[in-house]
């Protein structure tokens, strides 16, 4: 787990894409924030669980089930991760 305080959005986005690409075995550069996890990049329910676990480990954060219930796009994940990382930095 790599944890750095004072991360900017671009650093968080890069690490987030790396997590997603690793689980789905796709190129990081093929991932856009506007993409839908299932419709655009083909993640199934098991992939989504593994992505969640990988993100939690990478960023040293924990998601509640309520936080992720309506999340379908990568940009939504980024927003939640960014909020949690910044809250931990305080």
- CATH C-level class is Mainly Alpha
Please tell me what the overall shape is. Answer: globular
Strand content: under 5%
Q: pLDDT below 50 for ≥5 consecutive residues: which ranges? A: 1-5
What is the end-to-end distance? 19 Å
Number of domains: 1
Oligomer: single chain
Number of helices: 4
Category by helix and strand content: mainly alpha
CATH-assigned homologous superfamily: ACP-like
Helix content: 55-70%
Largest sheet: none
**Averaged pLDDT:** 90
What CATH architecture do you see?
Answer: Orthogonal Bundle
Predict the CATH topology: Non-ribosomal Peptide Synthetase Peptidyl Carrier Protein, Chain A
- Work out the radius of gyration: 12 Å
Helix-strand pattern, N to C? HHHH
The count of β-strands is 0
Structure description:
The protein contains 4 helices and no strands. The two termini are 19 Å apart. It is mostly helical and 90 residues long. The protein has one domain: ACP-like (Non-ribosomal Peptide Synthetase Peptidyl Carrier Protein, Chain A, Orthogonal Bundle), CATH 1.10.1200. The longest helix is centred in the N-terminal third of the chain and has 16 residues. Helix 1 packs across helix 2. Helix content is 57%, strand content 0%. The N terminus is likely disordered.
